[in-house]
C-alpha cells in the first residue's frame, strides 16, 4: 500500500500532461522536465514506455510525440483491464501477461494469484486471474512461442 500512497499525486494528474507540448517544437530534456514538472527519472520511464526522442548533442523531444504519448497513456489508463492484463502499482500502467514475465502464485478453486515483474521499474504487482482465462492465455502463449525471437 505504501507504493500506492507515494505515487498518488502522479496517478491522479496524468490528464495534466495532455496537449501541453507544441507539436512542431523540439524540446531538450530540461525543457521537457520544466514543461511537465517532472524529474529525469520520470522521463527515462516515459522513454522506456515508448516516448520517442532524437539524439543530437542533446536529446530532443518533438512536441507532437510528447502529446501523442500522453494521450495514449491517458486513454489507456481510463480503459479497464482486459482479461490477461494487470494494472501495475509500480508504474501505474497496464501490462499484458503476454508481454511481461509472470509467476503463478497461490491457487484457489476458481482463481489463481499471478505475480508480474514490471519491465519499467522491476517491481512486483499481483492480480487474480480466473481459471478459464488462465487456460486460454497459456494456450495462446504456447501457440505463439515458436514465433518468439530474441530481440
Ligand atoms: Zn509496471
Please tell me about this protein's structure:
This protein is an alpha+beta fold and 151 residues long. The chain has 2 domains: 2-76, no CATH class; 81-146, no CATH class. Helix content is 38%, strand content 25%. It contains 6 helices and 8 strands, in the order ααβααββαβββββα. The chain has helices at 2-6, 8-12, 29-36, 40-48, 63-78, 131-144; strands at residues 26-28, 54-55, 59-62, 85-88, 93-96, 102-107, 111-117, 124-130. The strands form 3 sheets. The chain has a 3-stranded antiparallel beta sheet. Strands 6-7-8 form a 3-stranded antiparallel beta sheet. A hairpin with a 3-residue loop joins β6 and β7 (111-117). The longest helix is centred in the middle third of the chain and has 16 residues, at 63-78. The protein is elongated. The two termini are 35 Å apart. The model has no long low-confidence stretch (mean pLDDT 83). Bound molecules: zinc ion. Zinc ion binds next to β5. Zinc ion (ZN) binds at residues 88, 90-91, 93, 95, 118, 120-121.
Amino acid at each position: 500500500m505504501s507504493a500506492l500512497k507515494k505515487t498518488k499525486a502522479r496517478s491522479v494528474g496524468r490528464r495534466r500532461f495532455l496537449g501541453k507540448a507544441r507539436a512542431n517544437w523540439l524540446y531538450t530534456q530540461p525543457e521537457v522536465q520544466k514543461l511537465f514538472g517532472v524529474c529525469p527519472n520520470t522521463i527515462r520511464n516515459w522513454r522506456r514506455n515508448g516516448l520517442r526522442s532524437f539524439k543530437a548533442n542533446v536529446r530532443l523531444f518533438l512536441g507532437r510525440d510528447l502529446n501523442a504519448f500522453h494521450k495514449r497513456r491517458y486513454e489507456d489508463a481510463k480503459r479497464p483491464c482486459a482479461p490477461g492484463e494487470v494494472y501495475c502499482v509500480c508504474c501505474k500502467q497496464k501490462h499484458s501477461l503476454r508481454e511481461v514475465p509472470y509467476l503463478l502464485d497461490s491457487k484457489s478453486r476458481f482463481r489463481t494469484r499471478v505475480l508480474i515483474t514490471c519491465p519499467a521499474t522491476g517491481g512486483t504487482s499481483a492480480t487474480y486471474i480466473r481459471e478459464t482465462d488462465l487456460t486460454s492465455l497459456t494456450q495462446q502463449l504456447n501457440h505463439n512461442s515458436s514465433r518468439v525471437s530474441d530481440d
